[in-house]
Amino acid sequence: MKFMNTPDEYSSKNKSKTVIIPISYDVPLAHGSGASKGPDTILKASANIDYFDLELNCESYLSGIYTENIFSLKDKDFTTVSPKIINYLSSLNLTKNKFPIILGSDHSNTIPVISVFEKIYEKEDFGIIVFDSHPDCYQPWGKDTWWQATTTREIAKKHKAMVLGVRTMDFYENEFLKSKENKNISIIRMQEFLDNKSTFYDLSKKKMFLDGLKKLPKNIFLSIDVDVFDPSIIRNTAALEPGGMNYNQLLSLLRVIFKEKNVIGADIVEFTPTGSEDYYFSESYTLAKLVYKLIGYKFYLK
Fold it and tell me: How many domains is the chain built from?
């Protein structure tokens, strides 16, 4: 299945600048299930996207979009899943000349993804910008750890990270973020975006965001947990949290990030479509359109 059913001449593995990598598995979530179905439904919905981007005044697919087959795992133990994802991504021989977008399952997927990017960018530092309603800064607590709740803390061990759109956190996460132990993670709560210094749609005017961006390396990996959206936009996700971003607010931040930084890759995670296609289609279509926006901003944003 090709993303957007792009014509063969624009979906060549060698010539395409973007590579879509769907990874499907289910590990225990704090709430709900079904993250393994996310990548497939996003790919199917992408067939309905118009090639022409009205905002960018271009057809972004012309840069080439290659789609890997869905990599499916039956394992439900993240400690088993993680090395398999690392081995799989390593076998793709990704290079700095490609723009990988990983369609993941739950957010734990980002941990092995970052490990592979560390090999690709062995001699270059990169930062990580996470869109998430949670900081995901729990410390792993044993065999039954919900690894998606530890993601930022794990990937920030070697990299500076900024989490945008946070709306809830645990007491111990809050204590960790304020402590000397935390050297790399900064967060911006959603309520901080929506003060009188930001317009409703353009959150990028926030000084805290612009200052935080300057402190990050030039190279940036984007990780988008779909629960950063308000439940009125995306309700099929494992940990719904009211008061989130809408689509235009997210794009306002992405435009600045792509203008100021070299975005080296991205993932979209935590989409858990359930029920009939009629129930979740608008959401899978929204996320497919977001993928196309990432490609457009990477190669056509002026």
Answer: 1
